[in-house]
Amino acid sequence: MAGADKHIRPTWDEYFMEVCRTVAKRATCDRGMSGCVIARDNQILVTGYVGSPAGLPHCDDVGHLMKKMLHDDGSVTQHCVRTVHAEQNAICQAAKRGIAIDGATVYCKMTPCRTCAMLIINCGITRVVCERHYHDEADSLDMFRQAGIQIEHLSAATQTYAHM
User: Fold this and answer.
1) Residue 93: which of 164, 32, 45 has the closest Cα?
2) In contact, 69 and 90? CB cutoff 8 Å
3) Which H or E element spans position 40?
4) Read out DSSP for 96-117?
């Protein structure tokens, strides 16, 4: 076919990040819309998305449960605490199904929060690939560095939210 654009296969990171974006469409909190893929040896092990604990009301149905957070620099932001983060849900799915994630790579929308970073470290995950940065990522980046976990960002952009 003369003149047709040649198909370019995505890299493994691009492929898993695209799957991550698709998983995020299942999110039940329209504020974050995050997804997560945990893969090893170029195979998807588990996925997760941001949503309320099983059986509890979803933000999409009853609204957000906002809490203020005071940061070290004195700034205050608001966070929805009704939901479990995508990374946490993916790790829970692995535990629930007996899937070992030691040595795996996590693909996620933004730099994992401090709590997710601690879980990732304790699970033996060795690499984190993020689409964007998170505005409060310093603790996570420091912990990943100390633990020897490789972290990469596909974009220099920082995730923003309405009504932070």
Assistant:
1) 45
2) no
3) strand 35-40
4) HHT---TT-EEEEEEPPPHHHH
pLDDT in tens, 12-65: 999 999 999 999 999 998 887 899 999 999 999 999 999 999 999 998 899 888
Check residue 60 and give left, alpha or beta (phi > 0: left; psi -120 to 50: alpha).
alpha
| C-alpha 90, offset from chain centre | 9
Helices (H), 34-78: 59-62
Which range has the worst mean pLDDT, 27-31, 38-42, 76-80, 106-110? 76-80
As given in the structure block, the two tokens for residue 13 are 């990171």
Strand order in the sheet with 105-110: 43-49, 35-40, 105-110, 127-132, 150-153
109/146 Cα distance (integer angstroms) = 22
